[in-house]
């Protein structure tokens, strides 16, 4: 089976932690790219870093590697395989998923290491400029 292609998104993202009862800010809901996770204990947001959020805790300077899909939900091990490559390269990740694909967030300072490790392991990694060109 061929390995997946990943695309590096141009934007820089932030991960925010808010209290579980905090309303979701309208600036998030009007954004073109965001992830929301709510449990009984917390509300987590992944948004473009340019969106100001008043949070309990925030972590900035994350870049996104999108696994180009769509991926079938019955496919096994994609996230684990990519995660293992990045772990071996000592690149920390934060992963979010949609119905059709996975998104690996890596710190901006580790992006080049992540790309190099993925390419060395046989993955194709493209930038937004490559997609446009």
TrEMBL record:
Residues 57-119 form the CASTOR ACT domain. Residues 11-48 form the A9CJY8-like N-terminal domain. This is ACT domain-containing protein. InterPro entries: A9CJY8-like_N, ACT-like_dom_sf, CASTOR_ACT_dom, CASTOR_mTORC1, UCP008459.
């Amino acid at each position: 089976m061929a390995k997946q292609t990943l695309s590096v998104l141009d934007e820089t993202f932030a991960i925010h932690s808010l209290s579980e009862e905090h309303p979701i800010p309208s600036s998030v809901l009007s954004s073109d790219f965001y992830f929301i996770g709510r449990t009984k204990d917390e509300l987590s947001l992944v948004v473009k870093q340019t969106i100001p959020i008043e949070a309990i805790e925030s972590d900035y300077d994350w870049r996104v590697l999108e696994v180009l899909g769509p991926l079938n939900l019955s496919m096994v091990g994609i996230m684990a395989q990519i995660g293992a490559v990045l772990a071996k390269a000592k690149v920390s990740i934060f992963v979010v998923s949609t119905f059709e694909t996975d998104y690996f967030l890596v710190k901006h300072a580790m992006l080049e290491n992540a790309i190099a490790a993925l390419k060395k392991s046989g993955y194709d990694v493209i930038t937004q400029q490559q997609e446009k060109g």
